[in-house]
Write a structure and sequence with these properties.
The chain has 16 helices and no strands. By secondary structure, the chain is mostly helical. Helix 4 crosses helix 5 (92-106), helix 4 (70-84) runs parallel beside helix 7 and helix 5 (92-106) runs parallel beside helix 16.
């Protein structure tokens, strides 16, 4: 229960923060609002609980890492999310990041000091042990919820009816699928690079920010930091890499101006937010938001309390 609560709180805090271009308490999109994210976060509890329990079973030697069934857990989590709200796809990327974290945390002793190194080792074991069955479950799920910004890819395209057959015929694991997609999707990149953006950059940066600033300011600054260094891949898929890189440059300029620490930074942030909300929210840094939600989950697991 503890692990699930940590991850859920992380998701709730992420959507509450006034991050530019994202759904927040104050501003929603045409069909998706803050309330849809609240309902989605609550709906995740059973799946996160199951993931953590399976991780514990691996720790106790009752289950192998390949038997965890991450693909099925992700599928059920997203089915529950769909059943609890009518706002469409809300947390696909966040769930794909957080389910392995829940399993890895279940494999890690949390009774004493939080051991991020051990959790990271367990994360690596879990994602690398995924199977072709896990991949098929995720493909089915993505086709059912039909998220925006998928685009067609040259190999194992998720919208192709032949892809699932190939996954099973050639025994291609979910991890291997994500290796193919890691160049154009940061969620897949995290899986195949041992959560390097989340753990090497975002987590320590946010923990440091929390020593000085209030929660909203710390989250917004961390969001800008990640966006400044890693162009948002959802934006890239929707409108191209050139625009995505330009948005990252503007995020960096905001940090140089002081972000929410200065009046000029605050003014520029308002302008930046308005820009990202134009053109039907095609400039929404949704993947960056997913990374921040996972980061907040790790912070809460490590002992941070709002």
């Amino acid at each position: 229960m503890f692990i699930s609560q940590c991850l859920q709180l992380g998701m709730l805090l992420e959507v509450c923060a006034k991050k530019p271009g994202n759904i927040t308490l104050q501003t929603g999109f045409k069909k998706t609002t803050f309330e849809h994210f609240l309902a989605s976060s609550i709906a995740c509890f059973p799946s996160f609980e199951q993931a953590a329990s399976r991780g514990r079973s691996v720790f106790e030697g009752k289950l192998s890492t390949s038997e965890v069934g991450i693909g099925k857990i992700i599928q059920q989590c997203l089915l529950d999310i769909t059943a609890w709200q009518k706002g469409g796809n809300t947390l696909l990327g966040t769930v794909i990041l957080c389910v392995p974290i829940a399993v890895a945390a279940g494999m890690t002793s949390l009774k004493e000091n939080f051991d991020i190194k051990q959790l990271r080792l367990n994360l690596k074991k879990i994602v690398e042990s995924t199977t072709s069955t896990d991949a098929v479950y995720l493909y089915e799920t993505i086709n059912n919820i039909n998220p925006g910004g998928l685009n067609v890819v040259p190999d194992l395209d998720v919208t192709s009816s032949d892809s699932k057959k190939r996954l099973q015929k050639d025994n291609i694991s979910l991890y291997e699928v994500f290796e193919l997609a890691s160049g154009y999707d940061s969620i897949c990149y995290e899986w195949t690079h041992n959560y390097s953006i989340t753990i090497d950059l975002s987590y320590p940066y946010l923990m440091e920010q929390l020593k000085t600033w209030d929660l909203n300011k710390a989250i917004v600054h961390t969001f800008l930091k990640v966006l400044s260094l890693y162009p948002d891949t959802l934006i890239s898929r929707k409108v191209g890499k050139t625009i995505s890189k330009k948005i990252s440059s503007e995020a960096n300029e905001l940090l140089v101006l002081g972000g929410l620490e200065t009046k000029v930074g605050q003014k520029r942030l308002i302008e930046f937010d308005k820009k990202l909300r134009k053109n039907g929210n095609k400039f929404n840094p949704g993947t960056t938001a997913d990374l921040i939600a996972a980061t907040l989950g790790l912070c809460i697991l490590s002992g941070f309390r709002p």
